[in-house]
Design goal:
By secondary structure, the protein is an all-alpha fold. It has helices spanning 7-12, 14-26, 31-43, 48-63, 75-84, 94-113, 116-130.
Length: 137
């Protein structure tokens, strides 16, 4: 599975992303990948009104203290976002997104590759590719 090579490949592959999300949910840290995906979607936003409303949604869901899916970022990054949220740009979450990506790449991704979820997925893929067609069975 090519997506097991690195985080970028994993995040670009739907099956890999789904398996990774399942793993993160089992570790109670799915907010990281959800935030990363929300930021990727946010960066594609063109309308100024939609930028403002999406920024507020991301801020309230992931950034503000005690947010429902609060991500683990340093005070300085959180403070900068808090000050800039009044006039957001499509880049206002870039630093936080880099921090979350780095955390996933250095911490969650290696654990995912050692997880039972990953092993089961690899085994199911191998079984699927090694099946032979036997019309008489």
């Amino acid at each position: 599975m090519a997506w097991s090579e690195n985080m970028d490949t994993l995040l670009a592959n739907q099956a890999g992303l789904d398996a990774f999300r399942t793993f993160l949910k089992s570790e109670f840290s799915e907010e990281n990948v959800e935030f990363w995906l929300a930021c990727e979607d946010f960066k594609k936003t063109e309308s100024a009104e939609k930028i403002a409303s999406k920024a507020r949604m991301i801020y309230s869901e992931f950034i503000v203290a005690d947010a429902p899916k609060e991500i683990n970022i340093d005070f300085s990054t959180r403070d900068i976002i808090s000050r800039n949220i009044a006039e957001p740009t499509v880049r206002c979450f870039d630093e936080a997104q880099k921090l979350v990506y780095s955390l996933m790449a250095k911490d969650s991704f290696p654990r995912f590759l050692k997880s039972e979820i990953y092993r089961k997925l690899v085994n199911s893929q191998q079984v699927g590719t090694h099946k032979k067609w036997l019309p008489f069975l």
